[in-house]
Each structure stands twice: as structure tokens, then as C-alpha cells.
Amino acid sequence: MSQCIPSLDIKKQIGTIRKELDAVIKRVIDNTDFILGKEVDYFEGEVRKYCNVRYAIGVSNGTDAIRLSLIALNIKPGEGVICPVFTYYATAGAIATVGALPVFTDIDPDTYNISVSSIEKVIREKRDFKIKAIIPVHLYGQCADMDSILKVARKYNLKVIEDAAQAFGADYLGSGNLSSKRKAGTIGDCGAVSFYPGKNLGAFGDAGIVLTNNKVIAEKINILRNQGNKQRYYHIALGFNNRMDTIQAAVLRVKLKYLDAWNKRRQEIAAYFNEQFKDLGIKTPLVPRYTTHIYHQYVLHSKLANTKIIDYLKKKGIDARIFYPLPLHLQKCFRYLRHKKGDFPEAEKAAKHIIAIPVYPDLTKEEMNYIISSLKEALYG
């Protein structure tokens, strides 16, 4: 049986809602209302309701959502911002591009999210600059341990920006009481979300949003995203061109209606994989009690080198991947931070042993079984 199973099949997803998408795109074109138009206002309102948050500010992309959040929280050049070393470049890149210093931490070996003990460790280290904030990343679709992170943040008077780029729609359960349930991105001072096309909720290009319950932060980001003006041609701050395109908001409004169903389907696929892989000697995703998982990625951990397994799966037509093959402290662009191999052992171990297999909602049972049988072949021949 020959197959070609991509990491994500956006064409399949679009096909199921094509008429709705065509209609809203036509509406935007007919209205010639292309930047920060009415659809952006409507989308922001729908996100506020969905996330049960006071403010949602549409911006150009997820990276800018982090960057604007840092600026709105008055993070200055030369100040330190803690973030995990095992994440996409944008988290640390946003810190660096505002002139702040990324302060890397290792990860929890079971969830791949930021290690709370590692946060405490780096805070206690002597340095010639002040640490002012933490950016926990809700990696692969589940929340980091926010109760513990907030406890540390309060202890050291640090701001908290959630990088919820991969977890929009995930619930943070905290103690487990229904009253404590909150959406990813709404727990810290603010949350940054990406709607890159490959995300669970993906635009037709770049787009992002900042979530916050703080009126002052929201007002600052509203001004910063739009060239620093509150009233056209009157600029009260040095702002940026980080506005959301109306067409992206229109597309996202259509897709938002289906997000929970799509995430539920990802969870069902993950549960099926978990059952099939339980006796293979390969570690399936751990989901702590304090969070749900929306499986932006379904990530396995093998004792074998992941490159060999992934090469085999690719030969079988399965687009398996490594998220991420080189931790940030070993990236050329961050050499100035003077880290070396071995500084963050759990991140380095994960980079060599994790495997992400397709988990998108449109996978068929036949495709799932083909992935399972192919992985078994890769592991045991």
C-alpha cells in the first residue's frame, strides 16, 4: 500500500468549508476594507467570548504578539526575559529584537514544557542585569504548569507573557475545579497567539492576537500595533505597523466556529495512537492533570535516534518531523549568549529522540493504521 500523508493537509480542511470562506473573502473584497476593518472588530469580540478574556487585540503575527507584549509591559533593552530553550525561534527572537536578553531554561522531560525548577535556578544565578519577565511556552498544544510559574513570578516580581502560539483552545484546569478553568493565554499578564496557517486555528497568511485582562496593556498594544496613533495622523507613541489584515480576520471567524470540533478530533486520534503504541517501548505524550491537550503536534519519544525513524517514515510517504532539531542555545544567532553543548541536557536529549507524526483532524482510519504499522516497522523491522 502506497501512501502520501503530509504533516498537515490544509487542502482537506479548506474543502469542507470552502463555500463559507469564499463568501467572506468576497465580502472583504467588495467592501475594500482591508486593514483593521469591521471583520477584525468582530473577530476580536468572538475571541474575547471564546477565551472569556476582557481584551483581544488582533496583530500581524504571533511573533509580533510577543514583541508588542514585551514593549507594553515596559521590558527594556538589557533586561532579562526567561524562556525555554526548547521552542520555536520566535519566542527568544522577539525578546532579542526588543533589545532584551533571552535567559534560557531547560525543559521538563515528560511534557517538554518549561521546567519550573530550571526557572528558579536561572533566577538565582549571579548576573549583571535584571530579569524582568518569564515567557512560558505552551508547547505542542498543552499548557505549562502555570500555577507554579505564577508562584515564582510573584516571588520575584516578574511579568508573565504566555506563548500560546501552539495551544489556542487548550484549557488550563489548575486545581481541577470548573471555576478555575481558563483558556491558554489568559492566565498571565498577557498571552500571545499565532494564527500561522499550520496552527490548529490557521489564517490564510500571517496573523496573531494578544489576550489580556489588563486595560492598560490592551490600550498600549492597540496604539503600538497601529503606528503609535489613537487618532489617525496623531501619533502619541513610537509604534509599529503590526495591524491585522481584515481578510485574515474574516477567514479566522469562519474557522473559529469549527475549532473545538477539530481539536476534539485531534484528541480522538491521539487517544487511538496512544492505545496502539502502549506496548511498543516508545513514550506517548504525557498530559498532566492541570491541562488539556489539543495536539497541535503529537510527539513520541524513542530510545532510538529519531533521524533514522523519521527517514524510514518519510520513505513510506509519512511526513514525520522533529520539533525542534536544534535547541536555541546552540543556534548560531544566539552564540552571543555564550552557551555550550550540555548546558540544557533535557532539551538536547529531546531534540535527538522526539518524533512528531501527523495528527490533523482529517486523517482517515486507514491513514492512521498505515502510520502505526509503518512506525512499528521503523522500530522493529
Question: What does this protein look like?
Answer:
This protein is α/β, with parallel strands linked by helices and 381 residues long. 39% of the residues lie in helices and 13% in strands. The chain has 13 helices and 13 strands. Helix 11 packs across helix 13.
Query: CATH class of the largest domain, anyone?
Result: Alpha Beta
CATH fold node name of the largest domain:
Aspartate Aminotransferase, domain 2
**CA distance, first residue to last residue:** 17 Å
The biggest beta sheet, please?
A: 7 strands, mixed
Q: Report the radius of gyration as a whole number of Å.
A: 21 Å
**How many domains is the backbone divided into?**
2
Report strand order across the widest sheet: 1-9-8-5-4-2-3
* CATH homologous superfamily annotation of the largest domain: Type I PLP-dependent aspartate aminotransferase-like (Major domain)
Strand content: 5-15%
Proper CATH architecture of the largest domain: 3-Layer(aba) Sandwich
Number of strands: 13
* Helix coverage percent: 25-40%
